[in-house]
């Protein structure tokens, strides 16, 4: 973790300092992606503590995509309505988040309005999870003196971009071929799923791309001033081998069971990660190339806005690449 911090902290603090010195009328939005179990929560906590401390002394809002999962009952309804699609039988994949709520929260934060930050309890319903009572959500921006200056939005699929359907079909076909011709070498999950199920996830992801830009009707000034974008910089915690996610997620769930007395079994965890894994196979390459480069509205002034940190099985940084 120390090695990650040594790279990420200077990148984020430098951007935050520069943003503070500008005439910005909105907070700095930091997107942070990392595979499950990579240490996102610990990293984000350290970044937030640094930014809150002198000399920056900034008000920070940490927002997790996990806290926007559908309430338990809605997730059950989604699973039942797509009973043959194993990718939506539990929370995780695009389609299992409340995208309108995410956009509402981002719009409110962008305009420095009083904003309730959602919370989700993953231990509810034996690890299936459920949304926490909104009455207990933290409210930020309650006064001018406490306006949020930096928003950190973290999650396993933050920054994923939907692919053209033809690209999805090509990647799926290649995975199926690898599974059939070299089964002992194929460690992915994409090839074990039906094409229509994968396409469903990809189409759902298009709704998430609404988070990448301001509503030009509701917030025309912000849309003009910031090239119609929410996120200003991106941090990508990239595993040297994506398969590390299985052991890392098992470790996380074990800690959750010890802390709360409930949670998924090891077998349930492996099945759970299987449901996420096809998206790593589909969308990681775009992240590695640089998410801003794939947004036409960011054709200028995008260099150096993304930091990719490659970590090994012990979660130690072995390479840092600024994109």
Q: What are the key terms here?
A:
323 residues; alpha/beta; six-stranded mixed sheet; two-stranded antiparallel sheet; 10 helices
What would you say this structure looks like, in words?
The structure is a single chain. By secondary structure, the protein is an alpha/beta fold. Helix content is 42%, strand content 15%. It is built from ten helices and ten strands. The strands form three sheets. The chain has a six-stranded mixed β-sheet, with helices on one face. Helix 1 (2-21) packs across helix 2 (40-52) and helix 6 (165-181) runs antiparallel to helix 7. The chain is globular, with a radius of gyration of 19 Å. Residues 214-228 have low confidence and may be disordered.
The poorly predicted ranges are 214-228
How much of the residues is beta strand, in percent? 5-15%
Radius of gyration: 19 Å
- Ends apart, CA distance between termini: 21 Å
Tally of separate helices: 10
Helix-strand topology string: HEHEHHEEHEEEHHHEHHEE
The spatial strand order of the largest sheet comes to 2-7-1-8-9-10
- The average pLDDT is 90
Described by the principal axes of the CA atoms, the overall outline is globular
Helical residue percent?
A: 40-55%
User: What is the count of β-strands?
Assistant: 10
Structural class label: alpha/beta
Chain oligomer state: single chain
Outline the biggest β-sheet: 6 strands, mixed
